[in-house]
Amino acid sequence: MARPDKEAAVADLANKLRESDAVLLTEYRGMSVAQLKELRRSLVGNAEYAVVKNTLAAIAARQVGLDALVEDLKGPSALTFVTGEPVEAAKALRDFAKDNKQLVIKGGVMDGELLSAEAVDKLASLESREVLLAKAAGAMKASLAKAAHLFAAPASKAVRTVDALREKQETAA
């Protein structure tokens, strides 16, 4: 590539690194073009899978302050730029890697923190944001129901006591 082309590629990569919620790094050695197309289709929506030159990606990562990512840029590397929910993209990569052993998840970056391959796997095993929010809402609703029952208990106990006293007076009279 000519120098201006390389500068443009580095600027584009740096921009994507800045705008992404997470970046996941994979090695695709031995994968066919058809497999890469299938992987890209599985990531459509909230992530973009891009095969990158390691030297250009390293320069862009340093420009953005992601020096820790540079160490993993060895061999045929590809970056997954996640602009939505990182869990969904991590799940898609993990599921694809299960069926295609050539894809190796090397790590990534999320919120400026370096992720190891194990951390990406843990991220992929999380439930989606919607499910976690639903569980939290359910737990809060259960707590509120318990509190309402607790506050209503003395009143209902008083009503039962008054009814019992009334029945006792009626039977005594």
List keywords for this structure.
five-stranded antiparallel β-sheet, alpha+beta, about 170 residues, 5 strands, about 65% helix
Short description:
Helix 1 (3-19) crosses helix 3 (54-64) and helix 5 packs across helix 6.
Tell me the radius of gyration: 28 Å
Write down how many β-strands occur, each being a DSSP E stretch of 2 or more residues.
5
Largest sheet: 5 strands, antiparallel
Strand order of the largest sheet: 2-3-1-4-5
Order of helices and strands: HEHEHHEHEEHH
Low-confidence stretches: none
Bulk shape = elongated
Q: What do the pLDDT scores average to? A: 81
State the helical fraction.
Answer: 55-70%
Residue share in β-strands: 15-25%
Overview of the structural elements:
- Strands 2-3-1-4-5 form a 5-stranded antiparallel beta sheet.
- The termini are far apart.
- Helix 1 (3-19) crosses helix 3 (54-64) and helix 5 packs across helix 6.
- It is an alpha+beta fold and 173 residues long.
- The longest helix is centred in the C-terminal third of the chain and has 44 residues, at 129-172.
- The chain has helices at 3-19, 33-42, 54-64, 67-70, 86-99, 117-125, 129-172; strands spanning 22-27, 47-51, 77-82, 104-110, 113-116.
- It is 63% helix and 16% strand.
- Strand 4 and strand 5 (113-116) form a beta hairpin.
